[in-house]
Specification:
about 250 residues, mainly alpha, about 0% strand, globular
Length: about 250
């Protein structure tokens, strides 16, 4: 609320308005898509325990959407009128010195806890004997080391990588659940979906570097979804034919 009020007070200052940028609208849109896609599996690690899955999922999606819009608006306004694109610079310009630092520390700790917890839960779906808490601790340590060693001035490429990984994965999941309505259980089915995912990731990066007017997420998502649905239809048809012959 404070940042919002501060940004509104800065809006009339057209003298410091940025007149140009080095990122296209599509490229910025792809970054905006990558974040909620990457959070979808994480949120599901919590909503899966809910007594009312639909209500919990709807609430999570609604709150995430509203808060994301607010934060994107604040970030854009701060970048345009606040004199910089660094969160530290923005908070300093807004008069949030120590308070801003505390906000950053607490937000980092809380969101990182959720990431580490999700990594632990995901590990148990791959290997039942895995310790979710142990994996979470290991992920936290590795992530901390990576944050220290990795240059944090520009993580744009990393965000694009997240989008390329999660968009086809979510598409395959949705196609199997809503269209094929079957649970993948055989090794061959896993390998086929892995191949679909890999090709879709390649398509994402190709479309991203080709500066397509439709972006990279939509083509990669559509391809993974459609091909998975077709593969599922062929598999069910073959299975039905085999049962009839028997």
């Amino acid at each position: 609320l404070y940042m919002g009020a501060h940004m509104i007070s800065q809006w009339p200052s057209e003298g410091i308005l940025l007149t140009s940028g080095n990122m296209s609208f599509i490229a910025a849109l792809e970054l905006s898509i990558a974040m909620p896609l990457s959070w979808l599996p994480l949120i599901s690690d919590y909503t899966r325990e809910s007594k009312k899955p639909f209500s919990a999922s709807l609430t999570s999606a609604t709150v995430y959407t509203v808060t994301s819009i607010v934060m994107y608006t604040l970030g854009l306004s701060a970048a345009i009128f606040g004199g910089g694109d660094s969160i530290i610079t923005i908070m300093m310009n807004a008069g949030l010195g120590l308070a801003g630092l505390i906000v950053i520390i607490f937000s980092t700790v809380t969101t990182t806890f959720m990431d580490a917890y999700s990594a632990g839960v995901s590990s148990t779906t791959i290997y039942n004997g895995a310790s979710s808490k142990g994996i979470a601790v290991i992920v936290t340590i590795v992530g901390t080391i990576a944050a220290i060693l990795y240059p944090m001035d520009d993580i744009t490429d990393f965000l694009y990588l997240i989008g390329s990984v999660f968009a086809p994965m979510i598409a395959i999941l949705l196609a199997d659940y809503f269209i094929n309505r079957q649970q993948v259980q055989t090794l061959s089915a896993y390998l086929v979906r892995g191949l679909i995912w890999a090709v879709s990731v390649g398509l994402y990066h190709y479309m991203l570097h080709s500066e397509s007017t439709i972006g990279a997420t939509l083509p990669a998502f559509t391809m993974a979804f459609v091909v998975t649905a077709i593969v599922g239809f062929i598999s069910k048809t073959a299975h039905t034919s085999a049962e009839i012959k028997q």
